[in-house]
Amino acid sequence: MASYFDELGINTTQKKRTTVDVDLDSFMNPSTSRQDVDLNAEQLLQTANLFNHFRQQMQAQGNVDQEQFLDNLVTQLLEESQQQIKGPPPASNRFIQMLPDVRDLKDDDTCIICKEGLLKHGSKVTKMPCGHLFDKECIIPWLELHNTCPLCRYKVETEQEAKEEEEEERQGWMYG
């Protein structure tokens, strides 16, 4: 015997609700970054529009830090699309290796990138020179692509600056 829904031709399967989920691993993976290839303005504008959509979602949730992070990201992408530049260079390996571990944390401290609490078990936390706290697993991929804090755009040492400093130290020792 057919059910009531079968007789009327009503589909009883529930549709899954789709949401936009950012995969930060692939977004900030330096091996998939193609800095040697210029992106055209349309691609950058599409990416900026995507982050603008995320920003609007965050405004509905009321997270001020995440909103500021996305605002900065959208602004940077729009500037890059208008100026046809590739963005800031990566931070130096020396700077990345010297990132300090932070242990004094508050219960409500969260990583701006992943939105996870920084006190979660086994999480290594670091502090940028500007004072912002991040999970190391989030900030290191960012720094491998950009020499700025993702929240306030504080600039840190690039590989070129590190090489120039080492060269000056060598010359100072030789002629000192």
Automatic annotation (TrEMBL):
Keywords (alphabetical) are: Metal-binding, Zinc, Zinc-finger
Coiled-coil residues are none
Q: Which InterPro entries does the entry mention? A: Znf_RING (IPR001841), Znf_RING/FYVE/PHD (IPR013083)
Q: Name one GO biological process term.
A: protein ubiquitination
Cellular component terms per the entry's GO annotation: cytoplasm
A GO MF label? ubiquitin protein ligase activity
RING-type domain: from which residue to which, for each copy? 111-153
**Superkingdom of the source?**
Eukaryota
What is the designated name of this protein? RING-type domain-containing protein
